Amino acid sequence: MLRAGIVGLPNVGKSTLFNAVTRTRKAEAANYPFCTIDPNVGMVTVPDARLAVLQKIAKTNVLIPAAIEFVDIAGLVKGASQGEGLGNKFLSHIREVDAIVQVVRCFEDADIHHVSGTVDPVRDIEVINTELMLADFDTVSRRRERVSKDVKRGDKTAVAEEAVLAKLEEALGKGKPALIVDLTPEERAVAATFYLLSDKPTLFACNVREGELSHADANPYVKKVQEYVNTHLSCEAVVISAQLESDLVDLSPEEALEFLKELGVDESGVGALIRATYHLLGLRTYFTAGEKEVRAWTIHAGDTAPKAAGVIHSDFERGFIKAETVAYDDLVRCGSIAAARSEGLYRMEGKDYVVADGDVMLFKFAV
After folding, report:
1. pLDDT at position 259, please?
2. What is the pTM of this model?
C-alpha cells in the first residue's frame, strides 16, 4: 500500500492533522518541538460519494472503500541535512514514503510556539525544501563519483545515468527541487532509481484557524502559499483546520456535518485532503457492485484491465479473458446493469483496455 508522509516544521499541526485523517488519538500533539519522534502510521479510508449511490443500485448493506496509509513524521528544522534536530532520522523517514503532504501554518496564535518566532508559511516551505534539496545534492554528488569510472570505460548505462545526474545536480545547486527538473520520460525513470527526497509528489496543506475555514481564500497567508506553490513548485495547495478536524473525530458523522454547517462549511477539509493525496499518489478507483458488496478497488492511473483484475487476485490477472464494464455515470443514469446493457453501454473489454476512474467492472477469467 502506498504511503503519504505528513511533514512540516515543529508545531504547525502535523500530529493534529494525522489524528484527524486517521480518526485516532495515536499521535501526541503538544506545544513544543519534536513531540513526535518515531513516525505514527495509520490507515485512512478514501471518502467517495459514489459508493453510496452504487449501494442503492446493487441493493447491498456492505460498502468497502479504498484506503491509503498516512505517516506522521517528526518536525524538521533548518540544518536537518547536516544533522540538526532529528536530522538524518527525519530524512530517512521521508525517503520511505511515496508522496509528501507538507503542512504549513497559516494562522496567528501567541499561545502556540513557532520554531522561527514568527508566522511566515512561504519561509517555512523554503526551509523544508532547502533541507530536502541539500540532502539530495549530497546524494547526487556522491552517486556521480561512484559512476565516473564506469563512464570513462564507456559503459552505456553509466553514461545515461551520468547525464541525468548532471542535470539534477545543476538544478539542485540552483535551488530547484528534482520534481520540477525538465527530464524526458526515460530520464525520469532513471531519476526514480535515486529515491530523491525532492522528487516526491507533494501537496501543501494550509492549516488555518477554525473560524477562518469558510473564508480561507481571504487569508493572506493562504494566498501567499497558493501563489508560491503554483509559481515555483507546480503543486496543489488545500485548506484545512487541523484542530477543527481533530475535534470532529469525537462526533458522529451527523453531528460533525451539522457542526460544519454552522461554520458555513459543506464538507470536511480532511475529506478533500485525502482525495487530493490519493490522486497525488497516482491512484484511481474502479468498483465492483453486487448483492454481496459494493467495493472500491485501487489501481494506478493507466492500468489495463488485467492489471486491475490482479488487484482482486493474481489468478484474475493470470487467467484474464475479458472485463464486463460500464462507466459509473452511465450506470447511475440507467439505474441498473440490465438497463445499461439494453442501451448498449455495458461493454466487453479486452487485455488492452485502460481502466477509467469510476468504471464498474466484472471480470471473466480461467486458470
Report:
1. 87
2. 0.82
| DSSP code string of 189-258 | HHHHTT--GGGS-EEEEEE--GGGGGGGGG-HHHHHHHHHIIIII--EEEEE-HHHHHHHTTS-HHHHHH
Spatial contact of 240 and 207, defined as CB atoms under 8 Å apart: yes
DSSP type of residue 74: P
Contacts for 237 with CB less than 8 Å, ≥ 6 apart = 203, 204, 205, 206, 222, 225, 226, 229, 230
Q: Rounded to whole angstroms, how far apart are CA atoms 296 and 116?
A: 43
Residue range 134-148, pLDDT digits in tens: 999 999 999 999 999
Cα separation of 185 and 183, whole Å?
6
Largest CA distance in the chain: 70
CA 86 from chain centre, in angstroms, equals 24
The burial class, CB within 10 Å (0-12 / 13-18 / 19+), for 112 is: middle
Residue 235 pLDDT level (bands cut at 50, 70, 90): confident
**Helix (H) / strand (E) containing 311:** helix 305-312
210 by Cβ neighbours in 10 Å (0-12 / 13-18 / 19+) ranks as middle
Closest among 316, 287, 349 to 58, alpha carbons compared: 287
Contact yes or no for 102/202 (Cβ under 8 A) = yes
Q: Decide the pairing of beta strands 347-349 and 320-326.
A: antiparallel
Q: Are 11 and 114 in contact (CB under 8 A)?
A: yes
Choose among 251, 308, 364: nearest CA to 66.
308
Report how far residue 115's alpha carbon sits from residue 76's, in angstroms, rounded to the nearest whole number: 10
Structure confidence at residue 79 as a pLDDT band (50, 70, 90): low
Per the CB < 8 A criterion, the answer to whether 196 and 169 are in contact is: no
Distance CA 23, CA 152 (A): 55
- Average pLDDT in the 41-69 region? 93
Q: Let me know if 341 is exposed, middle or buried by CB neighbors in 10 A (0-12, 13-18, 19+).
A: middle
The sheet that has 40-45: what strands, in order across it? 40-45, 67-72, 3-7, 99-105, 202-207, 236-240
